[in-house]
Amino acid sequence: MKTAASPAFQDQGNSSVHSIPRSPRLLETLLANLDGVVYRSRDDERWTIEFVSEGCLELTGYLPEDLLLNQRLSFADLIHPDDREMVRAHVAQCVAARRRIDVEYRISRADGETRWVWARGVGIYGAGGKVEALEGFMQDVTERKEAAQALQEAERRYRSIFENAIEGVFQTTPDGTYIAVNPALARIYGYRSPEDLIVSLRDIRHQLYVEPERRNEFMRLMEERGQVSNFESRVYRRDGDIIWISENARAVCDEAGNLVCYEGTVEAITERKLYEAEMRHQATHDALTGLPNRNMLHDHLQRAINNARQKGGLTAVAFVDLDQFKFINDSLGHQVGDELLKTVAQRLQSCLRDSDMVARQGGDEFVLVLQNQTGGEAGIAEVMQRILAAVSRPWQAGDREFHITSSIGVSRYPTDGKDVETLLKSADSAMYRAKEQGRNNFQFFAPWMDSQVSNRLEMLISLRRALDQQEFKLFYQPKLSLKDGSIIGAEALIRWESPEQGMISPDRFIPFAEEAGLIVPIGEWVLRTACRQNKAWQDAGLPPVPVAVNLSPRQMNPALPDFVADVLAQSGLAAAWLELEITENVVMKDAEKTVAALHALKRLGLQISVDDFGTGYSSLSYLRRFPVDALKIDKSFVRDIARDADSAAIVKAVISLAHILNLRVIAEGVEDEEQHAFLKENGCDEVQGYYFGKPMTAADFTRRLGEEAGRLGEAR
Ligand SMILES: Nc1nc2c(ncn2[C@@H]2O[C@@H]3COP(=O)(O)O[C@H]4[C@@H](O)[C@H](n5cnc6c(=O)[nH]c(N)nc65)O[C@@H]4COP(=O)(O)O[C@H]3[C@H]2O)c(=O)[nH]1
C-alpha cells in the first residue's frame, strides 16, 4: 500500500449523500491495483471530489488528498481547459437524461504533461430525483488515443492522396465493375463524380475500351503476370470522345490466393500520344505540303517492291517535275512558290487511288508510287495524262491567275529497276527526257536514256569539263529591220558541243547551270566571246551591228557593270554595239537592286532589252521605271498570231504600248510570211526567226554580214 497515494475518502456524515462505505480490505486492494481511478464527485461547478482511489497519483501526478474537497485543486482544474466545456456539456446531458457518462478528454498532469482519459460514470440521484453525486471510473487511454489518431491521420493522408491524385485510381471486380474510384478517374473519363462513374460504367469491356479486345489482353496479362504496366489503350469518355490512357494495375488476392479485385492507376496520355504522332508525322512528312517525304517514300517503295515481288503485278514510279517553278519562285517570291507547291500536291493526290502514294522528293519534285497497275502501260499512261491535265489547270495567287506545266518520267518494276534507287534513278532519267521533249509531257523510261547526260551529278561534272575544255560555241542569229529587211543586229546563242553527245541545246543545260551556279562563269565566257567577235567583224570592215547577249538572273549582281566595262575595254568594242537581253523575271526580281544595276549598265552606253516579253508577270507600266530600250515579244505569241485571236491582240497591244513608252519592239520566232506580214502591218520594229535565218556559226554569220555589205553597196 502506497501511503502517499492512499485512497482519500471524505465521509460527509450526511445520510442523504451516497458514499462508498468503508471498504473491507479486499475492496481496498482491488481499488489500489486498478489501472485507473474510481471517483466520486459532487455535481457542482468544480466537481468537488469526495473520493478518489489510489491510482490518482499515477494518472494525474497529484495525491488523492490534493483533489479531495478541492484541497489543492479541483477536478475541473485537472481537465484540459480546451475540453472543459465539452465535458461539462456531456455530463449535464447525461445527468439530465439519466444516461451513463462516457467521455474522453484531456487532463493536465501535475508535471505539465497532457494525457487522454476515458471517464465513465453515473449520476447518483436522491429521493427527489435530484443528482447527489457522480461516481465512476477513469483510465488513461493516451496510447490507444494516439494510436487511433495516428491511424486516422494515416487514413486521412491516404484518402487525400486518393482524392487529390492527378492520376485516376480504381478498384474493379474481375468481371469488370468498379468497386472504388477516385475523383481524378471520374474526371478523366468525363463523369460527374466517382459515384456517377461507378453506377454508369457497368461494363468495362464494351463501355470503356474502344477495342473491347484490350480488356481481354488486360485480363490475359493479369492472369500471366498478376500485373500490367504502361498498358496503353484508347477509351471512350462519357460524352463519347476518345482519349488515350495508360494503366498500371495489379491483381489483389486474399490470403488463400483467391483473386479479389484489380486495383491500379490510370493516366490520361492523349496529349503525349498526339505529340508522339506529330513527331512521327514530322519525321516522315513534308512540312509544307503535308505529303510523305523522301524517307517515307523510300520505305513505301521498298514495301511496294516486296509486294510486287511476292504477288506479281505492275508497280510504277513517276517522277513529276514542275516546268516553270524556278521562274515563279524567283520572280513572284517564295510565298507564291509555296502556295503553288501546295496546290500541285493536292492536285496530284486527287488524281490517285487511295492505295497509291504521292511524296515530295524535294524542291518542285514529286514522286508517285502506283501499285498493282492492272491496266498495264495504257493504264499508267492514262493516269499520267490526268496528272498533266490537273497540274496545268490555271491556279490563283491573290487576284492573279497562273499556269504551270509538268514533265513526268515513269519507271516500272521490274523492267526498269529492281530496287528503290534504280527505280527512282530511271524515273528521273525519263523525266529529263520529258523535259527535252518540250515539257508538259510524260515519258516511260527506256534503257538508252541511261547513257544520256540525265543524271545531274554527271551533268555537273560534264558542264565543268565543258568550260575547261572549251566545248561551248556561240551561234549568232540575225535580227532584221521590218522597215527595209536589213540586218540590224545579232543575238549570240550558246551551244554545247559535247564529245559524247554532239550538239546540246541551251534549254537542256542552261537551267541546270543556273541551278548549279555555273551560269556565272559560262555567262562571262559568252560576253567576252560575243564582244571579241563583234569587234573582229567591225575590224574586218563588215557593217557594224550590235550583238545581243542573254543575261541569266544569277548574273545580275552588283559586280556586273564593272565586269561588262572591263570586257568592253579588253575587247575594244564600243558599248553602243552591245545589247544585253534580260528576261522579265530578272526585272521583277529584287526590283530596287536591279534598277540600280541597270542604270549603271546604261551609263556605260549599251542597250538593254527585255526578253520573252509576255510570258512573265511584269506590267508595262512597271517597265517605265526601268532603263530599257526594247521589248522582245515571246515567240509563243508570234507563233499563234494567225491562229489565236488572243495572241494577235496581245502582240498588237504590246507593240502600241511599247511605243507609247518609247521602246523598240522585236518579235522573235518569226517562221513564216503570214507572221512577218502581221508584224509589219502592226508596226513592229524588228524581227528575228527561222524565216530570216537560224542561229548560225560565227563563220556563217560573217558570210551573211558580207552579203549584207554587198547588198548595201549595190543599193547605194
Ligand atoms: N521555234 C523557233 N525558235 C526560234 C526561232 N528563231 C529563234 N529561235 C530560238 O529561240 C531562242 C531565242 O532565244 P531566247 O528566247 O533568248 O532563249 C534562249 C535563252 O533563254 C537561253 N540561252 C541561249 N544562249 C544563252 C546564253 O548565252 N546565256 C544565257 N543566259 N541564256 C542563253 O536558251 C534559250 C534557248 O536558246 P536556243 O535553243 O538557242 O533558242 C533560241 C533560238 O534558236 C524560230 O523561228 N522558231
Question: Mind explaining what this structure looks like?
Answer:
- By secondary structure, the protein is of the alpha+beta class.
- The protein folds into 4 domains: 3-142, 2-Layer Sandwich (Beta-Lactamase); 165-274, Beta-Lactamase (2-Layer Sandwich); 287-452, Alpha-Beta Plaits, CATH 3.30.70; 461-709, EAL domain (TIM Barrel), CATH 3.20.20.450.
- Strands 19-20-22-23-24-25-26-27 form an 8-stranded mixed β-barrel, surrounded by 4 helices. The chain has a 6-stranded antiparallel sheet with strand order 1-3-2-6-5-4, sandwiched between helices. A 5-stranded antiparallel sheet has the order 8-7-11-10-9, sandwiched between helices.
- Helix 13 (325-332) runs antiparallel to helix 14 (334-350).
- The longest helix has 23 residues, at 142-164.
- The radius of gyration is 52 Å and the shape is elongated.
- Ligand C2E binds next to strand 20, helix 18, helix 19 and strand 24.
What hetero molecules are in the model? Answer: ligand C2E
CATH topology of the largest domain: TIM Barrel
Spatial shape: elongated
Largest beta-sheet characterization: 8 strands, mixed, barrel
Domain PAS: 23-98, 154-195
Region (Disordered): 1-20
Domain GGDEF: 313-447
Protein name: EAL domain-containing protein
Structure at a glance:
The chain is α+β, with helices and mostly antiparallel strands. Helices cover 44% and strands 24% of the residues.
